Amino acid sequence: MNKQGKRNKMSTTHHLFTVEEKDLFIELLKEWPNSESGTELASHSVSPFISFYFPPTPDNHRDIALLMVDIHEAFEQLLGYPYTMTIHPEAERPHAYPEEEPDLRRQALESHPSETFVFWFTDEPNHASSPTTAGHFWRRRFQADGARVNYSSISFYYRWQWWLDNRDAWRQFVLKTIDLLKAHQVYSGFAMANPMEYGTRAEVTTWERALTPAFYGLDIEYPFGMRDELPSGIRPPTWAFLLADHWREKLDLTREQVRSALAHPRISITELHSGQWIELGEQPELYPVEHGVPELPMLLNRLLKPIRYDDLGLLGFGQWDGDPNERFTDADSRRWMARFDADSDWPTPASRLLTAKHQLPRKPLRR
């Protein structure tokens, strides 16, 4: 990973980065999509990710908690045991791992359906910095009062080179996990990696607003702010996505009709018990804006638009008086959500006129 930019302090009363630092970060990401920018206090990076969203149920809360532990252990083994820090239900603060290994199975068995069950593992000791590898697990409490059921979630970050070297094992893990969780929505692509410290979301949203006009394929993935909103609809996928039967039925389409609508030599569809796993090309792409609006995300977006929810709470923080750092407004958020629409003006009308002639299938990047 690359690192650039050093300043003496990071504050929302000062610009978090200069135009030159932003431009350098953009160029680094075009060369290697898992690059970072930072100071001596914290670094923020774009990372490959996979996130699973699934509804809680009243009668299997312990089974789900135990399943989450199983999934954590399986992915930790797949990654080669990289984690060095953890926080869990009995921890008041993050602590070293595996020196202080939590008894997650006991905690899962003792968990109550009216309480959340949350744990997080990471390889990043600085809780204000983006991790290179992490797993964040959040089982939502079940509300028995008839309130809308919000999603539970599991999210992973991992190194791009690791994914390139282990994509088949990664895919086997993902497909198995989708069916185990009976997931409703699953997304994978590139996004800013959220640090363990929730307050740093302000810095991350500043980078998201600065980088998204340069890359159509940079997703925004913030489970803490999205779990409550995603039951209202999906967001536009950038690469891999689960069209669960739950949502496909709202489109009033059969699985065969979905296959027909997405018939393209570079789109693969895998049939699962939970739904259809869709991959737009062989690997995720950041899609620099100067290469034109990407064809495959537009094709999938056209199919999914009726179930898209444009008011998702996926941005975390808005602008406030005196803050010189630009973040998404509600209006810009809706424009970004609609960026794969044929009549979109994101990021600018002029940039939409560019052709996609440079978007040929690429060989995997390697270092």
Automatic annotation (TrEMBL):
Q: Which Pfam families match?
A: TsiV
Name of the protein described by the UniProt record: DUF3396 domain-containing protein
Species whose genome carries this gene: Pseudomonas salmasensis
